[in-house]
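Input.
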Amino acid sequence: MNHSIRTATSHDLPAAARTLSVAFADYPWTRWTIPDDDYAHRLEELQSLYLSHAIEHGLVLVDAHGRGAVAVLPSSAPPLADDLQRQVRELHGDRLEALLAADLPAHPMPSWELATLGVRPEARGAGLGSALVDAVVAEVGRLDPGCTIALETSDDRNVRLYEGRGFFVTAHTSTADGPAVHSMQRTLPATS
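Output.
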């Protein structure tokens, strides 16, 4: 199937945040790190904050039909601004301590972080997730040939998706009372 994927702008942010919040509704990591109280709203707000940072300092791609989105950030991107950090802390509420205690391995330096990728449930199984991965890998490879792209996932189905796109598992991390996290990466060719 042919998918129409393009670079997002700030105008795409609300729809992309909604798409990602629907895509992550039952995701183990977000279920563990976001309180149940008003979970859907918190999740959409967090996605919006992270996407706005990625649009400014990295790259966000969206499906032209609003069914999927992906965001990457270079390791040179600044941390979230203080106001955004405050909002993130508030949205994580009483789960913030667990989130901060997760001891995930550092990404290789320098690298790009595939920070989020989501596809609406009704659009899954048609190759859109793979198309989003391929599109973001191609664009990052054009911007930064020879770089490494790193990510984490808490869903075994995602591991298979990323392995099918050339990524490999570099670590498995257990959390105290939450999901296991798979760290993955892929080094791109030095020439695009």
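The beta strands are 5-7, 59-63, 68-74, 112-119, 148-153, 168-173, 181-187.
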